[in-house]
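Query protein
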Amino acid sequence: QVELVESGGGLVQAGGSLRLSCAASGRTFSPAGMGWFRQAPGKERENVAAISWSERSTNFAASVKGRFTISRDNAKTTMYLQMNSLKPEDTAVYYCAADTALPFVPFQDEDEYNLWGQGTQVTVSS
C-alpha cells in the first residue's frame, strides 16, 4: 500500500512563499504522474499543477502559471510545489495525487488519479 503524505502548509502573508512536499511511502512506488489539487471552502477541487513521471511534461492552472513550480526529487518519491507571490485566493486545502495508470501524461483531470493524500492547509492573509 502506497501512501501520499503532504507537508509544508501553513499561514503566510500575501506576496509570500511556501513550499509543499508530497512524500510517497510504503511499497515500491510505481511509475506515476503526479499532481497538486486544491479545494477552497465552498468550491470544487481544482488542479493546480501536474508533472509526468519523466518530468518532461508539466501543466499548470492559468491562475498559478508563473507563480508556482512543480518538481520531483531524483528518486521520484517526493514531489514539490513551490508557491511564490501567494494571493489570498490561493487559500485552500492542497492535495497531492498520483496516477499510476498513465504515468507519462500530466493530467489535470482528478478522475485520472488513483492515489490521494490527506491534504495540507494553506492560508494566505491579505
Remarks:
- The mean pLDDT is 94.
- The CA atoms of residues 2 and 26 lie 5 Å apart.
